[in-house]
Amino acid sequence: MLDAFGKCRPRPDQLVAIGSETYPYYRPVTERLDDGEVVIGGRAVLMAGSNDYLALSDDPRLKAAATEALDRHGTGNSGSRLLNGSLPLHEELEAELAAFLGMEAAMVVSTGYQANLTLSALFAHQDVVYADRLVHASLMDAVRLGHARLVRYRHNDLAHLERLLKAADPRDGRLVLSEGMFSTDGDLCDVPGIARLARRHDARLILDCAHDAGLLGVGGRGAAEQLGRQAAVDVQTLTFSKCFGTLGGAVAGPRHVIDYLRHHARPAVFTASLPAGCAAAALAALRIIRTEPERRRRALSAGERLRAELAALGFGTAPGITPAMAIPVGDTALCARMWKELLDEGVYTNAMVPPGVPEGKALIRLSVTAAHTDAQLTRIVDACAAAGRRLGLIAAAQDGTAPLSLVTP
What we know:
Elements: E1 29-32, E2 37-40, E3 43-47, H1 60-73, H2 88-101, E4 105-109, H3 112-117, E5 127-132, H4 137-145, E6 149-153, H5 158-166, E7 173-179, H6 191-200, E8 204-208, H7 223-226, E9 235-239, E10 249-253, H8 255-264, H9 266-269, H10 276-291, H11 293-313, E11 324-330, H12 332-344, E12 347-348, E13 350-352, E14 362-367, H13 374-390
Parallel strand pairs: 3-12, 5-6, 5-7, 7-8, 8-9
Antiparallel strand pairs: 1-2, 2-3, 4-10, 9-10, 11-14, 13-14
């Protein structure tokens, strides 16, 4: 008889089965230090894997706002927004978010993942969702939770998307779904091109701006503003766990759409509301984002430098403008070794392996923030160079040092 739990047993091809010190996940951060370092395993290391791009999660203003809200409203709201869990803080945050994004209305929910799941209420039987092949897992889950038919187009391939849209049944509703800034390589959606196609083929454009809201654009509104097409986005989702330095998420769009989601989006209707401390922190972050553009300028310049230096070393890091980037590795076990080599060098990064990335496409993801100093960027580059040479991912140093993979045991 088939054991329903058989799928849970590790297989030799799974990283979890390695069971060694190279396992790169669920490493507790026991302390955050003032200089951008964290303590992991009793050792201080430089954090180069955080999505706190604007370095707001430790900002005293966010802490003060969260503490005041915690003292006033407690640790939780004990109910959904629909019933007893709404606070004036939620409404204030929604109004300021909508104005910030240039949308008619916004709805605050408890996580960024949940913000994307609420989109499922917009995906009906008669609809087709055209999704970029690299969109986040939460968007894929939203399509599965809804009832629309999913059609995936090759990453940022406008010609492929246009062919698919041309083949659409005129009786179907059409929605194009993409991320503004893709989280792994940090590259941007071609918002102008996709917006043109969406308009031409009567499709709605939904953009997940989890990583770019607060970071990109002259006003920090995200990738669409960066590329001059903010008004072309019909619905925008975002999370507070990146640039906003706390927890939560939101959906923004036309008022009638947001009102519909408030009553029909099951992931929001049947979930307890965002705690007051998080809502207050997100509101404080939004006000900082509006008034301190130097934070995003610093994050972008740090990312530009790190990306250029990694590419110059020969890592194959893709060009871009954002502070998130990838070192392609390929093999899963080798990726785990690279992650451990970097940790030994005193730099904490993120190992991305299947199923989070395609088979054979494992990579090390790095991200820098507005708080990283030039000296810290140098430390990251030096660590990547040393680890990459030892593992044969880049050429050996000119002093003739052989990469580890070429050294005879």
